[in-house]
Amino acid sequence: MNWLTKLTPPGVKSIFTKKDTPDNLWVKCPKSGEMVFSADLPGLLHVTPAGHHMRIGPDMRMDYTFDDAKYEEVATPEVAKDPLKFKDDQKYTDRLKKARAKTGDQDAMSIGVGNIRGIRTVILVQNFAFMGGSLGMAAGEGFIAAAEYAVAHKLPLVVFTAAGGARMQEGALSLMQMPRTTIAVQEMRENNLPYIVVLCDPTTGGVTASYAMIGDVHLAEPGALICFAGPRVIEETIREKLPEGFQRAEYLEEHGMIDRVVARGEMRKVLGDILAVLTQQSAEPCAEPIPA
């Protein structure tokens, strides 16, 4: 303790105490490296000034897509929590508890029903924050529940995909969800109901190999990674350098694998236009899109 500390009155020290700055006050843009004020992100739909589309959860996705952010939630079916009693460095049940505590969701899929420019629509959102959006039994049942709801109520289905692939902790049971979800899409087609896929960052593995690539229309957010195996795995396999932007949304659009890359600020308008054509309804006017 120095002499100045001894002379400082007790009450004065508390006035000048350094206040801690919240860790999440600023966010670094991965694209440009600039720091973005967190409070500005909701107004920008979580798109940085440089155009980087940040990953968002189901609540934000539905708020940004449905008219006036109004929608009804549809419960997803419950499934066996740990059918294989899987354990690696920790129990699968413990991983589920942590993911549920982190996201507030029971699993990776969330279903909402509301209007997109006045057209009643079912939206299914895959949450990458929940164990990488991995496709397991709960996710598969969630997809099927959304498709069945759409068929029962004669509504179009829009799916926002974001996944790292199948859930390894469920083994072959997770892989079984690929044909099951494909059959659910076929039921949509048999009932002449639109099935639109919006590919978000990242959409990979078994999700890309099933319901993510069999939509009537495929949209994607800018810069989204869309693939089965990632670029690093491919480069190590073929021992060659891949083209710039390989497997990104813009590259896939250029090569005909998706229909259009749509910025988040324009997504509701574009979806409304597509739904109006496919359902033969009139879409309500849409406000000016938020600039990318």
Summary, kept brief:
With 292 residues, this protein is an alpha/beta fold. It is built from eleven helices and nine strands.
Could you explain how this protein is built, in words?
The longest helix is centred in the middle third of the chain and has 17 residues, at 137-153. Strand 1 (26-28) and strand 2 (35-37) form a beta hairpin. Helix 5 packs parallel to helix 7. This protein has 292 residues and is α/β, with parallel strands linked by helices. The protein has 2 domains: 18-52, no CATH class; 55-279, 2-enoyl-CoA Hydratase, Chain A, domain 1 (Alpha-Beta Complex). The strands form 2 sheets. A 7-stranded mixed sheet has the order 3-4-5-6-7-8-9, with helices on both faces. 33% of the residues lie in helices and 16% in strands.
What is the CATH C-level name of the largest domain?
Alpha Beta
Using the CA coordinates, give the radius of gyration.
22 Å
- The stretches of 5 or more residues where confidence is low (pLDDT under 50) are none
Order of helices and strands: HHEEHEHEEHEHHEHEHHEH
Number of helices: 11
Indicate the proportion of strand residues.
15-25%
CATH third-tier fold name of the largest domain? 2-enoyl-CoA Hydratase, Chain A, domain 1
Q: How would you sum up the global shape?
A: globular
Main sheet: strand order: 3-4-5-6-7-8-9
Q: Report the span from N to C terminus.
A: 55 Å
Global structural class: alpha/beta
The overall number of domains is 2
CATH H-level superfamily of the largest domain? 2-enoyl-CoA Hydratase, Chain A, domain 1
Largest β sheet strand count, sense and barrel closure: 7 strands, mixed
Quaternary structure of the protein? single chain
Question: Helical content, roughly?
Answer: 25-40%
The total strand number stands at: 9
